[in-house]
Amino acid sequence: MDVIVGAGVVGLSVAWRLARDGRPVTLVDPAPASGASHAAAGMLAPVSEVSYTEAPLLRLGAASLRRWPGFAAELAADAGLPGAEALDLRSDGTLDVAFGADDLAALDELAAYMEKLELPVERLSGRECRRLEPMLAPSVRGGLLAPGDAWVDPRRVTAALLAALDRLGVPLVRARVGELLRDGGGRVTGVRLEPPGGETPSQTPSQTPSPAASAEPGGRASEIRAERVVLAAGAWSAGLAEVPVRPVKGQIMRLRSPQPLLTRCVRGTVHGTPVYLVPRGDGELVVGATQEEMGFDTRVTAGGLYELLRDARELVPGVTELEVADVVAGLRPGTPDNLPVIGPSGTPGLALATGHHRGGVLLAPLTADILRGEEGELAALCAPGRFREIS
């Protein structure tokens, strides 16, 4: 049996794919789908997010994006939804725009780099940008269109994954993992649960405890044994194993209007500061996101929200007329090289699915396939072995 520690979009995706393959799976998380996945905007944008030093991440992202249509269709079917449109999966492309002269010069340099990589992008004048998105500010100087980029609503995706897992009968233990269990040779053999406040961990309604769970004399399930533990705890992974993952804080705003303000994802640079706006089909507009090295601080701050709204207003002035629906801060799991850590660790019985930083939603399908046993160049790029042995 596999025990998946962490029920964000990555852990849920791994559990769902393994369960579909017929493997016994148990998920453990005190608050499923409430962390970085809940805060994420859901951009599936490997082309528009490319940077000069992250060509391997581009290859991973592009490969995972190609898997998303099939992934979404199968997930919708397993969750009992009418189709992938129920996840608000959209493929209208990303428009990357520049506000000032310096921003435009930087965008031109990036465009040249993208063209060198033979990426499908189109340079646009400010007028052409506004023709595509009439709500853009007159001061927008130019842009780049990445027509192959897409986006999805992560909250709908995680809700669908939970529904699909419920229909497959996968146990979901709502408890915190205190430590990994090991045998005398150091092999990981399961997890020990650490319920908050000493209360009994609970299973989701209609689901039963894993048959591999052991109980203390008082009846409290305290351990779950496993053939393999998959650590997918995001920014908290380093608390359970020696994996080089750190929290990177991101603050985000969700605004709302009766009709969508934009038709595609808009990214921009305003005086050197990046900002993005992601529209939903129901009129929601996600504005994000800061990147702050603040440890495990999940406070939403006035300064962070001010910067987001200030820069978004420069690109799309109409955002100031929208209703504020939600503000949230999440913790992305960052790694030293910005690549995820996916696959068998250096410790028998322990596999990793963490360190996805900004790309957890994008890379979820690929991550699940690697944990199902896919090998090759893509798996090698994010293999834990590129760091020292992880235990």
UniProtKB/TrEMBL annotation:
Protein name from the UniProt record: FAD-dependent oxidoreductase
InterPro entries per UniProt: FAD-dep_OxRdtase (IPR006076), FAD/NAD-bd_sf (IPR036188)
Domain FAD dependent oxidoreductase: 3-371
Keywords carried by this UniProt record: Oxidoreductase
Origin: domain of life: Bacteria
Origin species: Nonomuraea helvata
SUPFAM superfamilies the UniProt entry points to: FAD-linked reductases, C-terminal domain, FAD/NAD(P)-binding domain
Region ranges (Disordered): 185-220
Compositionally biased spans, kind Low complexity: 200-215
